[in-house]
Amino acid sequence: MFAAIITLAFLGLGLGYLLGVAAIHLKVEEPAIVQEIEAMLPGTNCGQCGFAGCPIGAKELAAGTAPVTLCPPGGKALAEALAIKLGVELDLSAVADDNRLVAQVIQTQCIGCTRCIKLCPTDAIVGAPKQLHNVVIDACTGCNKCIDICPTMGIKMCRPRQTLANWQWPKPQAEQEVNG
Amino acid sequence: MANTLISGPHTLASTTVSRTMLWVMLALTPATLWGLYLFGWPAINLFLITAVAALLFEAGCLRLAGKRVKAGLFDGSALLTAWLLAMSLPPWAPWWIGVLGSFLAIVIGKQVFGGLGHNLFNPAMVARVALLVSFPLQMTLWTQPVALFSAEAPGFIDGLAISFAGDALAGGAFDALSGATLLGEVKTGFSVGSTLPELLPAGLDHWSMATGYGAGSLGETSALLILAGGLLLVVFGVISWTIPVSLLATVGLLALLFNGLNPDRYPGVGYHLFSGGMMLAAFFIATDMVTSPNTPAGQLVFGVGCGVLIYLIRTWGGYPEGVAFAVLLMNALTPLIDHWIRPRIFGRDRAFKPLVVAPRALGKHQTSKGEQA
Amino acid sequence: MKLFSFRGGIHPSARKERTQDLPIIRLPMPKRLYVPLQQHIGEPAVARVVAGEQVVRGQILGGSVGRISAPVHAPADGKVIGIIDFSSPHPAALPVTTAVIEVSASQSPWIAPLEDPFSLSGDELAQRIQQAGIVGMGGATFPSAVKLDMARQHQVLTLIINGGECEPYLTCDDRLMRERAEQMLLGVELMLRCLDAKQAIIVVEDNKAAALANLRTLCNEAFYSKFERIKTVSVPTRYPQGSQKQMIQSVTGKEVPAGAHATDLGVVMHNVATAYAVYEALVVGKPLVSRIVTVGGGAVPRPANLEVPLGTLVEELLRFCGVEDDNYERLLVGGPMMGQWLPHAQLPIIKGSSGIIALNEAETQMDLPSPCIRCARCVTVCPAGLLPLEMAKRIRKEDFGAAQALGLSDCIACGSCAYVCPSKIPLVQYFHYGKGELQARKQQEKKRDRTAELASSKALRVEAIERQKAEAAALRKAQMAAKKAAEVAAQEIDLSDSKSEITLVSSEESGD
């Protein structure tokens, strides 16, 4: 009885020590992870994640203090990629599909002040002073920055028009409840 | 006119889950009726109790889980599970064995996993094994068949007494009918060192084995009727031939081999194929779609595995019958089998790489043209 | 000829008996035609006419742009009353640029080309086929000329002509092979010349005995010695026999490798209706402006095989066949297996519309899906060798990567799995959804890369501008400082100058 307890105690101690040693000596160095994550982020520094720009967001992600679903412009695809990168479980229901929203200039409101053009981080707004501006949908990340700067509230976020090229089948609904 | 987006195909086969279950029940009916006739009122009581309890448990679980209760009940899966369970219980077992069995099968064996389609193990076999391990006395108390309305058979009132108050109330009048199954008898005989010719001096009576004139559960007795029902299912494409054939062939081959080596110790093919729950397992239990592999090749592996395990347990194991254990063990292996045995994808090799096109001699065509020119 | 088999497949009830013996009849020319400028896979055609313009039939309404595209022609003489966004025959009825033509009372005849098409070179034939706007008419609508060009580059030896028509209800190809076989064979012969291929094999399912017999007689008759390179074979009736990959396997015994094309195996496949369109374009001089459509289904009182000008509204076909007031349960374009559901009938017939099927209540099972019981019937019937139940499970959990690893991209969406499913699980829709999501993700990733590039270049530019500004400011400051210094110095000089002046003056004064 006594012998057994002592044996087990020593066994536990010994194995624990080995684990501790392994943790120190076999540690995987990951200083590059922050840069790698930063490269995955949109890089527009829009601030929708609540951090001051993509590099800070990447740092928080690497530290594990921010969820992988933090980036609205990145959407589901980015959340998944980050979850794989960081090896965490992902609940996609938390990611809104709003990432597919893009800015649109309301033609009757735009006065051609070029403020949004100057601010847009991806040069997605084109136009000239005193001329109607326009959004290049393919370049817009939906970062919302232009919404606030517009003096006439002349930009709104909307879904890009559905065409034969970008339409996709929705998920079947009726069956969800039975097959979970 | 429907206004929701529907994808194709817009024409569907008429098979449904409930129709599949109905077919299986239909195939079980002759053997069941015959068994109920042979074992009389107590067996009928147990069968009904098990079925009703299973439906109640199923309804309760569906309601708790917030699923459609009516649709879930009418798919027939709970009834079929109870049916198979009742066919594997001692026919004169008390009422609570049926109720507890239904609870184990429906709640523990199926609904806990997420309901129909999600269970890893065959629910009926989970219940049977759990009962066998927990209540070895009640689960091994077999009765000789006494046909309904015959002189020795218990009447309706006696039947109720046997089912609900134990045989004691009936004055122990039917104790004389109790007896061991063939497999049990031989197993016990072997354990005291007897040889097969001593145990079965008259040889095997295959006909009574096949028609059910022997002690055992409903599903153990009328092997011939169960075989007929099973063949019906195979012929009509409700189940595939793979598992029954591989299972029976494996057991048959093993029996043939060992019987050839030592006929005194190892019984022959007929003994194995027509005794116990072999036919029921091969056609109705191992073929349970939820808990068996997806691919024909995987099903063959599954059937062979079941067959080997059944033979091992029957011959060298502690229990006289190993069908339930064998099926459960192979159920546990099913995800693994499904992972490793997959069909080859069109245009790819088994390692998922695209097939390589043999380079064609393009030049030939050109040179012939060149020659013409 | 030795034939092969393919994996899986199903035998849905054919339901062709109502239309298979009905000859093709011409639908009366409607008053208005709605001709979409995108009726094919690839880049949409660009409008070449404007509202108010008079057009003659065969005139180009939309010109092709880019490599994979096809022009669209006017199906009738008339006046273009608008180039508008009009719903397309698609489950979501998405708007597509459409030319609306007010059809004139009289129609001009087709003028056969002067040149003999059999004297043209392969390049010229391919060019004519491109100009006629011919696309795959089995439903895929891939531009035929592009396919032919690819096959020419690969020096394809065998041309397979798909007369399978394995979809239930549809009989338009069957009728074509029975009534217009000779013309169709001429089309095949022209394609053979275009490809410079060795042989053409017309593959017909064995439930179309009359069509088979007809083609065999024509190919064997000495009179038609020009068809000696064309062979007709009969294959067992089994869905999806008419799918390209499966039919190629039936004929050659070879599988098209994942990610490769049929041309890599030395074969190319075209539909019988496409061959007929080639004949019409090159011999009759009629570009692809009409097609044969089977109108069928339980809700159609008088089903028919109709020759319909492209751009005719589905509504008109239904009315012609006796369907009143949307009196049907479900409306489909194409066959019931791979065809698309249509939300309403105010949609035009396009180049790929092989059938209009109006189903009644009895033909549409609306059973709610029930749990998967892992019966694996879907695994047995899948012609692609996939595990549909496992893929659907992954997609349900939004695990698209895992579904892809199980071969989602190899799914041909034939619907065999969903057809046999006893639980009525909409497997095909899961796969459509999964493929769509994978595609969307790929595009999103691409977009993210591009916008990241844009963002960094903008950041660099802003930085550069700031720096320049700062430099300019510094420079200005320096200049200002220098100027100031200079001014100060100048002032000092000024002062001293004035002083000296003063002194000078004073001296002068003093000098006076």
Overview of the molecule:
The complex is a heterotrimer of chains A (180), B (373) and C (512). Helix content of chain A is 38%, strand content 7%. The termini of chain A are far apart. The model of chain A has no long low-confidence stretch (mean pLDDT 82). Chain A is elongated, with a radius of gyration of 25 Å. With 180 residues, chain A is mostly helical. Chain B has helices at residues 17-64, 69-74, 77-87, 95-108, 123-134, 136-139, 156-165, 182-191, 196-199, 206-211, 218-221, 223-235, 242-261, 269-274, 278-285, 296-316, 323-340, 362-372. Chain B is globular. Mean pLDDT of chain B is 86; it is low at 364-373. With 512 residues, chain C is α/β, with parallel strands linked by helices. Chain C contains 13 helices and 17 strands. Chain C has helices spanning 122-131, 144-153, 172-179, 181-195, 209-220, 244-252, 272-284, 314-320, 377-381, 388-396, 400-405, 416-420, 427-511, and strands at 24-26, 32-36, 46-47, 54-55, 60-63, 72-73, 78-87, 95-103, 158-163, 199-205, 230-235, 267-271, 290-296, 304-309, 330-333, 340-342, 355-359. In chain C, strand 7 and strand 8 (95-103) form a beta hairpin. The termini of chain C are far apart. Mean pLDDT of chain C is 90; it is low at 502-512. The chains are: A mainly alpha (180), B mainly alpha (373), C alpha/beta (512). Chains in contact: A-B, A-C, B-C. Chain A binds chain B through residues 169-170, 172, 177-180, and chain B through 5, 7, 67-68, 114, 117.
